[in-house]
Each structure stands twice: as C-alpha cells, then as structure tokens.
Amino acid sequence: MTIKIAILGLGTVGQGVYETLLSHGQYISEKLGTDTELVGVLVNDSSKQRNLPNNIPITTNYHDILSKDVDVIIEATVGDHPAFEYLSQAIEKGIHVITANKAMFARYGKKLKEKATKNQVHIGYEATTASGTPILRTLKQLLQVNQIEKMEAILNGTSNYILTEMTMNHTSFEDALEQAQEKGYAEANPSNDVDGHDAFYKSMILSELVYGQQPNWEYVYREGIREISNDQIQHAAQRGQKIKHIATVEMRNGEVAASIQPMQINDEHPLYSVDGVNNGITVHTDILGTFTLTGPGAGKLPTASAVIEDLVYVFHKEVKLEKQFI
C-alpha cells in the first residue's frame, strides 16, 4: 500500500519538502517499507508557474485535498488561519498531520494535540522550533525521567547570522540583513526574525511541550536585534563576550517564565560558539545535567528535513498505515 501525501502551501518550506520527497524518495520508501505518493498540493494562486509534474494535482480548494484518500497532510502555510481550521478538519477525518507553522502552533498546538489524541492520529511539529535541529524529539525522550529546570536557546537563524556577521566581519546591521535576505534566510519583511517574534513563538512551543503550559504572553519580555550597534558588538568583544539573541524558558516558583532578548555571554556559556545561521539550545536537567544541541536553523532544506523526519516517524514499522496514535 502507498502512503498518500498532500502539501498545503508551496512557498519556501513546501518547495523544500517537495524537493526532498523527490530527491530522497527511494530512501524514504526503503525506511518506510512502502512507497509514497504526492496526491495534491494546495496553493493560493493556481495560475502561477510551478516546477511540478503535470500528474500532481494543484488546487486552491482545500476540500479537493480532503476528498482524496490522503494518509498525511503536510502544512507549510503562513499565518494562524485558515491553517488551524485545515489541520482540525484533517485530524477529524483521521488524517495524520505535520506542520511547520510556528505562529499557528504556538497559539493552537495544545488544542490540535488534544484533538489528535481523541482521533488517534499523530501530529508532527518538529519543524516549528529549530528547523533541522531535533530539539523536540530529544526533549520528549528526556521527559520520561528528567525534570527540565531551564532552557536557553538561540532559536532564530536569521538573527544569529546577522549578529555573527556584525561580530566577525564588522558588517553593519543593514548590510548583514541584506546578505541574509540574498541567501534566503530572511524574508523581504524581516520583522518576524529581527524583532523577536519568531523566537517568541518557538519559545512558547517549547514551554508547552516541557511544562505543559505557557506563560502569559503579555508578561513575556521580547526584544529584537534592530537596536544593536556595531559599537556595542565591539565593546562586548573587547571583554571577551559576544551578543547573542537568546530565548530563556524556565520554571520559577511554580510558574513558567520566559524572555527573548539580546544577551552578552562569555566563552564559558554553551551558546557562545553557536554562530552563523545555526540554532542551539542548552537544557538544564536534574539528572542528566546540562547539555547543548546545535544545528542548522534557517533555510528550506533544514526545515524540510525536520518535516520528512516527522513523516518517517509517523509511518515507521510500528505504525505503518494503521493510523495508531504514538
């Protein structure tokens, strides 16, 4: 039996998922023990020229996707709505879902996970937090025994790239941002990255996963990197420090607290050497102690990698096409 896949959205992430399914299709099939087939793609504008074979149906109507015998829907759109409604409807139909939509999942992830449990399907969301760095799956394994006391993380590859260029090459913020846009790390409107919104959403997803709750969003301090000057960068360097954009999530006096802000750290901090477009997370636990994960944090292929890993996880030998909840 063939695993039938539909993709919602064919922007940077959706295109990366399609290309990975194409380039690694045989390997994915070998891992799954069955073939995969892309049976539909949802887009906003069907008249736009796209590099897709003619046999792959493209539609602007979500009901066309749901009417197919789909086993899993990969959601790679932007914004809360109608993404939340799309995934809700898919779950209610017994379809597994995988999402890379961090803003939507930060707001509605708990509801979607509860709905997935009720309908005995799997929801994959590794791609919402750190692109190609397997933070969520690692934390899920740790939570079997360990208590996580605090997390410190660089969660936005674009901001980290800009700060690295300013530090290493004395590049201005404006020039470093332009470079990030040229390399495909930053959007034409970079506010989501450089003003800290992206890192904020990812922090809330981590908080929900680890502590089962999020802090009140109004009380989370959020500061981006727009106001950081080259003088500040160089003054920090003279003290042997770097300025990094760090999200902190921790349990404080029985309540979850979080902040997203530029911080000056020295070379004893585990995130000091996380440079370029990479992400990193330092996790403080009661048994294992402290450890750090690092990996690519921006770009279509690292994010697509996380999506495909979720796909394989959903349909691995223990699950196959029985749609059992994991």
Automatic annotation (TrEMBL):
The name under which this protein is listed is Homoserine dehydrogenase
Q: Name one GO biological process term.
A: threonine biosynthetic process
Pathway assigned in UniProt: Amino-acid biosynthesis; L-threonine biosynthesis; L-threonine from L-aspartate: step 3/5; Amino-acid biosynthesis; L-methionine biosynthesis via de novo pathway; L-homoserine from L-aspartate: step 3/3
Q: Name the EC number(s).
A: 1.1.1.3
Q: In which domain of life is the source organism classified?
A: Bacteria
> Which UniProt keyword terms apply here?
Amino-acid biosynthesis, Methionine biosynthesis, NADP, Oxidoreductase, Sodium, Threonine biosynthesis
Q: Please spell out the taxonomic lineage of the organism that makes this protein.
A: Bacteria, Bacillati, Bacillota, Bacilli, Bacillales
Q: Which PANTHER family match?
A: HOMOSERINE DEHYDROGENASE
Q: Which positions bind NADPH?
A: K102
Active-site residues are: K202
Family annotation (InterPro entries) = Asp/hSer_DH_NAD-bd, HDH_cat, HDH_CS, HDH_short, NAD(P)-bd_dom_sf
Annotated L-homoserine binding lies at E187
Q: Which residues form the Homoserine dehydrogenase catalytic domain?
A: 134-312
Q: Where is the Aspartate/homoserine dehydrogenase NAD-binding domain?
A: 9-126
Give GO terms: molecular function aspect only.
Answer: homoserine dehydrogenase activity; NADP binding
Instruction: Name the reaction it catalyses.
Output: L-homoserine + NADP(+) = L-aspartate 4-semialdehyde + NADPH + H(+)
Presence of keyword NADP: yes
* Organism encoding this protein: Pontibacillus yanchengensis Y32
Q: What class of enzyme is it?
A: oxidoreductase
Family under the similarity heading:
Belongs to the homoserine dehydrogenase family.
**Which Pfam families does the UniProt entry name for this protein?**
Homoserine_dh, NAD_binding_3
